[in-house]
Amino acid sequence: MSRHMFFHREIDKLKKGILNLGGMVEVQVRNACALLGKYDEQAARELMNSDWKIDDAEIAVEEECLKVLALHQPVARDLRLIIAIIKINNELERIADIAINITKRLITIQKHTPVNFSFDYQPMAEQVLEMLKISLDALVTEDATLARKLFVMDEEVDSMRNMVYREVIAEIQGGNTAGATGLVNLYLIARHLERIGDRTNNIAEEIIYLVEGEIVRGGGEAV
């Protein structure tokens, strides 16, 4: 096998690895969001205990990237691809961690239930899950236009988080101090969902860099 063919086989292996990780993370986020609608303590504990699988997959992708860099010293677009995979790999692992944080908040809320207060997270959760799916689709297809769609969607998630914040503050100011711990954790769930949206934005930026060779930050602005 020629060196060129071996290199591209390694690249294909990297792509499969990052997409496999993406699929695992998408399942983890979906499972965490499902708990928002129907809390199940056993399912929550199982989700928290499964995080090591994603950590191992993330480490495997990073090690493979470093090996390809050391052995082949890629340049131009191939180098951009590996850099993008390294960064997206880290973003996906952090998204999985945030899903675990959502689960931890839910466990806390069960112990400190807010009085006469609830919030429907379904629209926000669905938006964030769609953003994660789009980010992975954009990665597979190397579609910068699709990736840029996430910047607009992220603004909508930010608005939803702000709405939760206002409702929680109003509830506390209205005298619901007995449920303050639960209320704070309810807001933090919204904050965690918003952070997942931010991380998918970061993935979008890396996809644009890969496809166009342009570094963008803060909602698609070139730097």
Based on the model shown, name its key terms.
elongated; mainly alpha; single chain; 223 residues; Methane Monooxygenase Hydroxylase, Chain G, domain 1
Classified by CATH, the class is Mainly Alpha
What is the number of helical segments per DSSP (H or I, 4+ residues)?
A: 7
Mean pLDDT: 90
In whole angstroms, the N-to-C terminal distance is 41 Å
Could you describe the largest sheet, including whether it forms a barrel? 2 strands, antiparallel
Instruction: Find the CATH topology.
Output: Methane Monooxygenase Hydroxylase, Chain G, domain 1
Question: Any idea what the shape is?
Answer: elongated
In N-to-C order, the SSE pattern is HHHHHHHEE
Q: Which architecture name does CATH use?
A: Up-down Bundle
Name of the CATH superfamily:
Phosphate transport system protein phou homolog 2, domain 2
Helix share, percent: over 70%
Derived structural class: mainly alpha
- Total strands: the figure is 2
